[in-house]
């Protein structure tokens, strides 16, 4: 939590410092990300029983940023937002028992049966900072390229259970903690309409790092996993200028 507080404070201070020079703009950026996570293995009772787990992710987010001009065509971009960090299509291939859908989840049951989850998600708030470069084109159109660094803080988790005799198909819990970070590149094509600029954006993940989860047997909240590339995102960039009309 202290790390996130530091990051948010830094972004706020940066905004006030640079905002004294010239007016910026507010960006609203809803988006969806599609990620393929690297396979990892877990050993149970010796190497003769090893799980090889693969997962994909379809995650949605909303980022609100204050874009601050620091040069003619370069902008500083501190922001905050929400991100649903998701792991979907969980598949397990055990060296002894073969393929199955879902991975073991450590839930105490009154009937002492094992539980499995085939998809799960972490609801996170995020603090981020980035830089953008503007390229002017014809007819009030701009191409915008940027690099961004996000930090995520989990506020709740939800696990979809493949089977639950008690009736509920989901298990949720609140476990506030620092969850991870990511670096990504984005490219937008923006059309200007007076004080509003709007257009589609393409997100290209570069690096992601996230914490493991103690709800899974053999894991702790202090471990981590990571990936390079293997993802893409699509969004809409809506920008509102804070400059006063002349």
Strand order of the largest sheet: 1-2-3-6-7-9-10-12
Radius of gyration: 21 Å
SSE series? HEEEEEEEEEEEE
Largest β sheet strand count, sense and barrel closure: 8 strands, antiparallel, barrel
| Percent range of helical residues | under 10%
Shape: elongated
Would you report the number of β strands? 12
Provide the β-strand percentage band: over 45%
Structural class: mainly beta
What is the level 1 CATH name?
Mainly Beta
CATH architecture level-2 label:
Beta Barrel
CATH topology: Porin
Commentary on this structure:
The chain is mainly beta. The protein has a single domain, classed as Porin (Beta Barrel), CATH 2.40.160.20. The chain has one helix and twelve strands. The chain starts with a helix and ends in a 5-residue tail after the last strand.
Characterize this entry briefly.
With 246 residues, this protein is mainly beta. The chain is built from one helix and twelve strands.
Characteristic key phrases:
about 250 residues, Porin
List the helices and strands and how they pair.
Blueprint lengths: L1 H18 L5 E19 L6 E20 L4 E21 L3 E4 L1 E3 L9 E22 L4 E21 L8 E4 L3 E17 L2 E16 L12 E5 L2 E11 L5
